[in-house]
Write a structure and sequence with these properties.
With 438 residues, the chain is an alpha/beta fold. The chain has three domains: 196 residues, 2-enoyl-CoA Hydratase, Chain A, domain 1 (Alpha-Beta Complex), CATH 3.90.226; 135 residues; 56 residues, OB fold (Dihydrolipoamide Acetyltransferase, E2P) (Beta Barrel), CATH 2.40.50.140. Helices cover 49% and strands 20% of the residues. A hairpin with a 2-residue loop joins strand 8 and strand 9. Helix 10 runs parallel beside helix 14.
Length: 438
C-alpha cells in the first residue's frame, strides 16, 4: 500500500511537470520594443535592454515596433550588429500609418522577419545635406556605394528583394506596405501586434521555427538610464545645453560666487556627453575663438562692441554646426526632420544667446560704473563751524558729521558748501556760489 502511494505521488509529479511544460510551450512570450523618434545612443541602449529582457524570460521573439525619421549611421550599425547577433529573433514592424525612413529601413532589413501595417511607408535612404543653396542629395560614389552595398546584403541575407532595397539608397525610393509585400521586401502585412504574431507563426528565423500564435505579449519598460540618455542625446537638447553652458560659464567668470560657472561647466559636460563627443574641429575652433573674444570684450575693451558681437556670432555658428543636418555623412535622416532640428535647435540657441548677450552687456555696464557707495563729489553740505584751507572743522552732509577744510579762503558756520574731493574721512569743500556773500 505504501509502495503504491509512492508510485502515485511520482506519477502525479510527472503529469504536473508535463502540464507545466506543455502550458509554457503553448503560451510563449514575445517582448515588444518601441522605437519612437530619431535613432541615437538612447536607441542603442533600448535594444540592449530589450535583448536582455527577452533572454531573461526565454522569449520566443522580439517585436521591434518602429516609427522613425531616421538617425545616426554609427548607432544604426551598432543596432544592426545587435539584431543579427541576437539569439532571440527580431521581428521588425512598422505600425499602420507610420514610417521607418532612412536608418529605420536599414534596421528593418536587418530583422529576420519584417511586417508592415497598411498605409505605412519605408525608404528614403539616400543621404541629404543642407547647403547655402538649399537641400541637396549626397551623390558621391564612395559614400553611396557603401550604403547601397550594406542594405543590399541585409536584404539578401533573408531572401528579400535586393533591387528595390538598393533603390531606397540610389533613388531615394519610398514604398508602402502593399507594394512592399508584393515585391518581396517584407514578409507580412498586419495592422496589429496580435495579427502580426498570428501571421509570422511557423516562419523561420535564426534557424528555428517561430511559435508566436497566441503568444503572451510583454511590453518592455525602458530603464531610467534610457530616459536620461534619450533626453541628453536629443540633438535639440544637447545643442541648447551646450550654448547655455558656454554663456553661463562666461557670466560665472565675470561675476563669480553665484554658481553660474558651475552650472555652465556641468551643462557643457552633459551636452558633450549627449553629442557622444563627436564634435567637428570647426565647432571646437569656433567655440574657443568665441569664448576668447567674449573674455577680451569683458575685461579689456571699453563697452560692448565689435569683438563681443564677433564672439556671439562664433558661438551661434558653432550651435548651427552642432545640429545633425550639416554635414550629414554620419546621419541617415529625412529632410523634414533636419528642418525640424534647424528650427527647434538654432532658433532657441539664438534666443538664448541674445538673452545672455543682454545679461553680459548689463554686467559690463555695472562693472564699469564708478562705485556709488561713498560718492560725494558735487553734493551739497552745510558747515557747522568755521573752516579754512589749513583748519578743518565739521560739516553736516545728509545727517552725517564729516571733517572738512575749504578749498580756498575762509568759510563761516551755517554756510552752504559743495563737496569737491574726499580723502578718506576728510572732505575738501568750496562755498556754494549762489549763496556767497559780497
Amino acid at each position: 500500500m505504501k509502495k503504491n502511494l509512492i508510485y502515485l505521488i511520482q506519477l502525479s509529479l510527472i503529469f504536473f511537470f508535463l502540464f507545466i511544460h506543455t502550458a509554457e510551450a503553448v503560451n510563449e512570450k514575445v517582448v515588444v520594443l518601441d522605437i519612437e523618434g530619431a535613432i541615437d545612443r538612447a536607441t542603442v541602449q533600448l535594444i540592449k535592454e530589450g535583448i536582455e529582457h527577452a533572454e531573461s524570460i526565454h522569449a520566443e521573439a522580439i517585436v521591434l515596433r518602429i516609427n522613425t525619421p531616421g538617425g545616426g549611421l554609427d548607432e544604426t550599425e551598432e543596432i544592426i550588429e545587435f539584431i543579427v547577433g541576437s539569439d532571440v529573433p527580431f521581428i521588425g514592424y512598422v505600425p499602420k500609418g507610420e514610417k521607418a525612413w532612412s536608418a529605420g529601413t536599414y534596421i528593418l532589413m536587418a530583422c529576420p522577419v519584417v511586417g508592415m501595417g497598411h498605409h505605412s511607408v519605408i525608404g528614403s535612404c539616400q543621404p541629404v545635406e543642407i547647403t547655402p543653396s538649399g537641400y541637396k542629395l549626397v551623390n558621391d560614389s564612395k559614400h553611396i556605394n557603401a550604403l547601397k552595398e550594406r542594405i543590399r546584403n541585409l536584404a539578401e541575407m533573408y531572401g528579400r528583394n535586393s533591387t528595390i532595397a538598393e533603390e531606397f539608397v540610389t533613388e531615394n525610393r519610398n514604398i508602402n506596405a502593399t507594394d512592399a509585400l508584393k515585391f518581396g521586401v517584407v514578409e507580412v502585412v498586419a495592422d496589429s501586434i496580435e495579427e502580426l504574431l498570428d501571421k509570422v507563426d511557423g516562419m523561420k528565423a535564426n534557424g528555428r521555427i517561430l511559435n508566436t500564435k497566441n503568444a503572451t505579449i510583454v511590453y518592455h519598460t525602458p530603464s531610467l538610464k534610457y530616459h536620461v540618455l534619450a533626453f541628453l542625446t536629443d540633438p535639440v537638447i544637447s545643442s541648447l545645453l551646450f550654448i547655455l553652458g558656454i554663456f553661463s560659464l562666461l557670466i560665472g567668470i565675470k561675476t563669480p560666487g553665484y554658481g553660474a560657472e558651475v552650472f555652465g561647466i556641468i551643462a557643457i559636460i552633459l551636452a558633450l556627453f549627449g553629442m557622444n563627443f563627436s564634435l567637428y574641429y570647426l565647432v571646437i575652433i569656433l567655440v574657443i575663438v568665441g569664448i576668447i573674444m567674449l573674455i577680451i570684450e569683458l575685461y579689456v575693451t571699453p563697452g560692448f562692441g565689435i569683438i563681443g558681437i564677433g564672439g556671439i556670432i562664433c558661438i551661434i555658428l558653432a550651435s548651427i554646426f552642432l545640429v545633425p543636418s550639416y554635414p550629414t555623412r554620419n546621419w541617415l535622416i529625412t529632410v523634414d526632420y533636419q528642418t525640424l532640428l534647424l528650427i527647434f535647435g538654432i532658433v532657441p540657441s539664438i534666443l538664448i544667446a541674445g538673452f545672455f548677450f543682454f545679461v553680459l552687456y548689463k554686467i559690463v555696464q555695472v562693472g564699469r560704473k564708478k562705485p556709488q557707495v561713498g560718492l560725494m563729489e558735487g553734493e551739497e553740505a552745510e558747515t557747522l563751524e568755521e573752516i579754512t584751507p589749513n583748519k578743518a572743522g565739521f560739516i553736516k552732509y545728509k545727517g552725517e558729521y564729516w571733517l572738512a577744510k575749504s578749498k580756498e579762503g575762509r568759510i563761516p558756520p551755517r554756510e552752504k558748501v559743495i563737496i569737491e574731493k574726499r580723502y578718506g574721512n576728510l572732505l575738501v569743500v568750496s562755498i556754494k556760489k549762489e549763496d556767497s556773500k559780497d
